[in-house]
Amino acid sequence: MKKIILIISIIILFSQNLFSQSYPRMGNPNWVTNDFFEDFNGSFDRSVWDVFHNWCGAGSQDEIIFSWVDSPYTVNQNYGNLYLSARASENYTGCGTSVDFISGQVATKEDFHYGIYECSATFDYEHGSFPAFWLTYRIDCNVSHRAEIDIVELKKKDSDSDLDNNAFYKPIGCGKGHGIEDAWHQTNFDWEDEDPHTFKCVYTPDYIKFYVDNQLLHTYNNNSYDFPDTRENIYLSQQLWQYNGSVDNIVVPQTSIFHWVKVKQFFLAPEITCPDVICTTGNASLDVDEDAYDITWSLYPGSAFTSSLSGTGKTVNNITASGNYNGTGKITFNFKVRGESFSAEKEFGVKGPRYEDISFGVVDSGDNPANQYGGTWVLCPNTTYHIYVHNDLSTCSTSNYSWTVPAAWTQYYTYQNMISINTNSSPGGPISVNANTCCNNNVTIISDYMGTDYNCGYYYMTFTPNPTTSETTVEILKGNEKEKKVMSSEDLQELQNLEWEFDVYDQSQILKASNKKIKGNKHKLKVNGWKKGVYFIRAKIKDEIVFGKLIVEK
Fold first, then answer.
1. In which band, very low, low, confident or very high, does the pLDDT at 271 lie, cut at 50, 70 and 90?
2. In the chain, what are the domains?
3. From CA 552, how far away is CA 472, in angstroms rounded?
């Protein structure tokens, strides 16, 4: 008995793991091939499409109410479109059962697997209309289980119509299949605009997504054994169905127009394996879809390697680093899948981290970040900064840093990966760092250029309160007003001994007040008797002019 319980538990665990696995490499939109496109120009191509003839068609409750018929009245290609029509045909017995309607359905001879399926169509929406763009595997049910994916179905009812998405599982052995509850989704949709709509399905091992006009309607995730996993043929059809079980109110003729159909199939996204850093020699390999062929590889830049720079196949052995290069290397694999060309590449470090793994961080003495423009650090004159070098590559550490900075700067001290400097009057200039790397060498790991910040705002002015009715405190602070930087103790000491002056002007630029030889960074300004309005303050602090705006109210 214990053995039986154990076996059952293992089976349950295995089946759960089977459908819970994730396959993100088989659903990447960057790795697809354009495998099918039909725009219905010219004559109908029977080498591509099969037309169903004398097959019985069921409405609701699986009741046979029409027959598929291959005729110009039901299947007609013209004017760059495929027209599928449902028509009256009383007592038609071609499918072995007497029916009163015939209609058109086509399916591709070719089958496809995981991919992006799209169709542009204008559906007829008369009562009883049931056009569809859908997928199912045209294989003997005794040979394989099958899946059906209904990308779009229109079901016209009395006063409204639905857009349905669905999926079905059909077991091997031709037994009765079942709809998959999580796959079913219904949207009330306005079909009466008579405009074309684009219907799309993204079919992957992990999920199926349904779209109309690129708007996501529903996502069905792989969470059960009956999730579709088979290849699929494309079906276009103008079906009929009886609402409330009656065929009496079905309107015919009705025609749905299919404008184009296309399929992009996913293939296994390429994955390159190689070391993060090649100190002396290393190997690289490509894992790619089994359908890939004509595989070649190349290394860049040529100066980084002394081994062969190109070759064929998925494996590259003995990539040898040049003794005269350090920085970023790159390997590129080119290959073809189903007649289309692709490239995959991966960067790695040569004799140390990649250039892209190393970066600078810059903060002032108050630990406030310096400004950056277009990725370039810009520094203010006469400012103390701590410059850090950051290594984002955890597999190749760096140490023993030595710095080269502009000669006009004052170097205070270095500590581990940081240097403390003052820019003096020349904030811009080149900066580079040498360090020991995981390759047991000492090389330049980063070279960059620091720019000049022309919007430093070395001082700025505040008013408390602002607006005011009688008095305000004018205060000079150090830093940037927009960023409200925290001032260091050195900054505060400097402000206590600051000498400055300011003038006040009204809106007509008439001098209202003048205050000279102010000591310290604060001064009270009385505005009693001033008219209501905006006043402009011009302060001179050392060689810098600072402007402010004060509002007086009554």
1. very high
2. 23-266 (2.60.120.200), 271-350 (2.60.40), 355-452 (2.60.40), 459-552 (2.60.40.1930)
3. 10
